[in-house]
């Protein structure tokens, strides 16, 4: 069984985000980039399934500029078998990503697609669900446990009432939560081997997908600073303060 793992190149989680002076977006020049942490978890889970004999090949896919090849190489160094880079400039929205992944799935015919539940740069949490809908495949979101059993996969996910386990017929789409696993570090020998692993390139045009954004970002601004708290002597004073602040 093949497993496809989409990965996204984002600003490193340890870097403080800076907004451009003109408010047109986030400053990306000379900023350390890394693989989306949720996608790292997806790569790790695919590797564990392969090590358990449940998968035969792991294909990593990234969509964006040529620099996304570095993110794919990181996944290859972790242990993935090959990569596919879909070159597309500018902002790529979740629906376009889902359509591009659908086209790749049609070519590769995997038994499972595992992806992070969201990317830390936009927190959209949409791509996995959209991909499952476009493919008409069952989906298991926010997975904290994944177990492949023959022609099915069991996914344990957190819900408001506790934990829920769903059993999905393969092929299926699974999105990963933080509690699923702890991603491994790539060793130096594996980093060197990753340079020789195959990495194919294609474009959104070649896949027949229009990746033009449908939304316009009007403005981007940093969140306002947190104000100091105050003490109140009674519940009545608390209510009065809340009314003054417009909360009540």
From TrEMBL:
The keyword Transport applies. It holds the Pfam family ETF. Signal peptide: none annotated. Transmembrane segments: none annotated. Keywords: Electron transport, Transport. The keyword Electron transport applies. Residues 23-211 form the Electron transfer flavoprotein alpha/beta-subunit N-terminal domain. InterPro entries: ET-Flavoprotein_bsu_CS, ETF_a/b_N, ETF_b, ETF_beta_N, Rossmann-like_a/b/a_fold. It comes from the Bacteria. Coiled coil: none annotated. PROSITE patterns: ETF_BETA. PANTHER family: ELECTRON TRANSFER FLAVOPROTEIN BETA-SUBUNIT, ELECTRON TRANSFER FLAVOPROTEIN SUBUNIT BETA. Belongs to the ETF beta-subunit/FixA family. This is Electron transfer flavoprotein subunit beta. The lineage of its organism: Bacteria, Pseudomonadati, Pseudomonadota, Alphaproteobacteria, Hyphomicrobiales.
